[in-house]
Amino acid sequence: MLSAASHLMSNIALLTKSHNAIAAKKKARKDQIKEILFDDDARREFLTGFHKRKLAKAEAAREKAKARAKQERLESRREQRQMLREKAKENAAQVEQAYGAVIENDDESWDGIKDDDNARDDEYEDEEQLATVTVVEDFDPDTIIHGPEKPEPSTAPRPGFSTAKATPPPELPPSSRRIAKKSQPKVREKKIRYETKDARKREQTKQRARRTEKAERAGGKASRKSNAGPGKGSKKTSSGGGKRRHPSKGH
Q: Which Pfam families match (predicted)?
């Protein structure tokens, strides 16, 4: 009986397994794709577009590099503007401090000792030590812009000078005025004469001729001196060192 029961169980398992296999095959057959269709244009584009895709990739890389360079340039400009803004603030603070806008610090409430004297540096030198003393003066920006103030002329009368106003000269009658005008010497205006072109040429020609004549005279004198040198020596040797008599002007 046991063998018959085991044989029955094995048959049931085999039938169940085969039934499951048949059901799976039916399902696979039902879900199976009947036909695969390819897009010829897309297939051709993919197979022949390797070079085009390579160029497009390089162009995209260049555009990306340009965008990155532009971003870096904008960032550097932003940093430069920020630096210039901070520098301008510092300069404005220095100018305000120089012009006396910033008088005291907020942390310190004591103003210190004020002195009305102008600042000056005084040096005190001893045999062993040299000390420099700086006296602080009040800063006035108007002295830089407009210069030092000129002292106003005093209205007090000087000793030795009278404060009376100068009396104007008495008016003369018309006849006296004419006589006074005639008595005054007339100042003649200097007339400037301009030479013409021909006159300048003639003057230049005359000056050139004078210079040539002077040069010829100087050359003739030099040649005569050179020719007269040996003759004088021969006269000295022939005379034997005696005194020569110069002919008188009458001869």
A: Nop25 (PF09805)
